[in-house]
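Help needed: design a sequence for this.
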């Protein structure tokens, strides 16, 4: 059964956590951001270089499917459009590369947006250390638009009530990574006029996000398309940056150690 949605109750906690993060140093960063060729080469995360082409068991918005694997089980999450131009965020699993699927589990059914499938794809991290499935996404919730997080503690059968990462009008892409009790969410800042990348950190498997860092990206141009990886206390954040000086788009990265 889908959980109740006490998002508003998290709002004060979110604000207090954000203010506390301004006074703390949750990450000891290495050298300043430097250019890199690709975000896929990080040694911090095990990735499947050639995931299977899976067709979800229900109608899906094109390009919205996010995948993660624990053992032989692929976990999937996607946006499923509704006739009123809102969408459902749903999930399912397959252990035979899409021949058969589990029952569909609702992740978030409270979207109030009217953009149909013209929306940012969700992100998914299936953590083999904990068995949890973590999902991040941008959505117009009943209390307002923003970036949200939900996770499953039972292998994707059900998902907990969403936790707000940050409220704001400019909805964009997210990325999520997890290693046991540590969860990291990188996101396109929904409140910035110039696109930049933010970071939210949890030491409690995503039950609470104690720290929010804005910005992670530098001020040398618009920053988009975040990617995050975490392994133990090591953290990597990668993004695309459009340099205003020369008009080029480069890939930037920051590495650090979690406190």
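Sure. Designed sequence:
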């Amino acid at each position: 059964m889908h959980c109740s949605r006490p998002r508003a109750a998290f709002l004060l906690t979110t604000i207090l956590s954000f203010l506390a993060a301004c006074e703390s140093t949750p990450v000891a960063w290495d050298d300043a951001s430097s250019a890199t060729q690709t975000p896929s080469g990080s040694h911090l995360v095990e990735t499947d270089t050639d995931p299977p082409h899976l067709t979800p068991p229900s109608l899906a918005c094109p390009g919205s499917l996010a995948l993660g694997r624990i053992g032989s089980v692929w976990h999937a999450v996607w946006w499923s459009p509704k006739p009123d131009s809102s969408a459902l965020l749903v999930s399912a699993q397959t252990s035979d590369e899409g021949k058969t699927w589990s029952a569909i589990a609702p992740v978030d059914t409270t979207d109030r947006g009217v953009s149909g499938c013209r929306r940012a794809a969700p992100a998914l991290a299936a953590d083999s250390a904990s068995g949890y499935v973590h999902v991040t996404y941008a959505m117009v919730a009943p209390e307002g638009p923003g970036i949200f997080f939900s996770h499953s503690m039972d292998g994707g059968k059900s998902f907990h009530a969403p936790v707000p990462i940050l409220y704001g009008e400019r909805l964009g892409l997210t990325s999520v990574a997890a290693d046991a009790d540590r969860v990291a969410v990188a996101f396109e800042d929904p409140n910035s006029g110039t696109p930049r990348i933010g970071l939210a950190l949890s030491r409690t498997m995503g039950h609470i996000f104690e720290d929010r860092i804005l910005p992670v990206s530098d001020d040398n141009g618009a920053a988009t398309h975040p990617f995050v990886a975490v392994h133990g206390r090591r953290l990597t954040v990668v993004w695309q940056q459009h340099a205003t000086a020369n008009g080029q788009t480069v890939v930037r990265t920051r590495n650090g150690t979690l406190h």
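The chain is about 5% helix and 45% strand.
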